[in-house]
Amino acid sequence: MSTESIFQTHLVLGYVAWLLCFGAYILPWLTSMDRVKAHRAIATLHSFRFFGLVFILPGVVGPNLPTSFATFAAYGDLAAGLLAMLAIVTIRIRPVFWLFVVAFNLVGMGDLVLDYYHAIQAGLPARAGELGAAYPIPIIYVPLLMITYGFAFYLLLRPQPKAAQVLAGEAVVS
Fold this sequence. Notes:
174 residues; 6 helices; 72% helix
């Protein structure tokens, strides 16, 4: 099997495994809580995206990892992670919290989509071994991130019941 085939198989199976896990365990848990708590939980997961800086760390990744992929992925991950952290620390200031929730989701998902584009343009699937110790990031972590971004956007875009709007308004005023 070629490196590219193995990488693509790993990537697809990473999505399948996380979709199964998300549907069975994470989705019921997130839907059992209010929107703020659900977004806080998602932001907590995404706050670890600073780890993407590993793509530019010599000795962890191979010397031939395409810089067109590595640099953009590293700093995009850092930006998304910092925005997620800001969402978490501003939870008591709801308008600011929601601003950071929207920001980390837009920046984070945009970063991952552009990372896929850069990876394909740079031929990364055929050179996946250059990811070195960072190989699990696109295979295990990125699928979960993409799935939770999808759910976060669903939560952000779905209409909020009137009673929940009133309670949320009272919570901000209190």
